[in-house]
Amino acid sequence: MSEIRDPGLQAERTSLAWGRTALAASIAALLVTRDGFVSHQPALSVAGLLLLAAAAVTGVAARRRQSTIVAAVAEGRSPMSRHGMLTLTAMVIVLGLAVVWSVLV
Q1: The predicted structure's pLDDT at residue 27
Q2: With contact defined as beta carbons under 8 Å apart, do 24 and 5 qualify?
Q3: How far apart are CA 56 and CA 67, in angstroms?
Q4: Tally of structural domains, the chain
Q5: Where would I find the H helices in the chain?
Q6: What is the structure's pLDDT at 7?
């Protein structure tokens, strides 16, 4: 019995999850930035802007990853790249720490 396997589906779901994470972080960053401006707290505004920049980088990386996955699957090779996944993982960890820090400030 032959097994049909599509190596692009798991990587594609992961890439889409990174995009959703970037969107959620962008919304949180906008709220933090707004709160900093409204309450006249420059540190909170700066934290929100840095968080927004990190979310934007994560979103761009997710889109880039998505196009890499499509190209790899079309060529018949594996879409998984260790370097790319480690980079995205590091960005999400930094983004998560920034969100936690912005809530605690």
Answers
A1: 92
A2: no
A3: 17
A4: 1
A5: 8-38, 42-75, 82-104
A6: 57
Positions of the chain with pLDDT lower than 70, given as ranges:
1-9, 11, 77-81
pTM of the model: 0.63
CA torsion sign, 84 to 80 to 27 to 93?
A: negative
- Contact, 20 vs 90, CB < 8 A? no
Question: Any residues with CB less than 8 A from the CB of 22 and at least 6 apart, and which?
Answer: 55, 56, 58, 59, 62
Q: Residue 45: count other Cβ atoms within 10 Å of its Cβ.
A: 18
Radius of gyration of the chain (CA): 17
> Which structure tokens are listed for 27?
């919304």
Burial per residue of 14-26, b for 16 or more beta-carbon CB atoms within 10 angstroms, e otherwise: bbeebbebbeebb
Whether 61 is covered by a domain: the verdict is yes
Per-residue CA distances from 104 to 32, 47, 91, 99, 101 (Å): 11, 11, 20, 9, 5
Domain that holds residue 71: 8-104
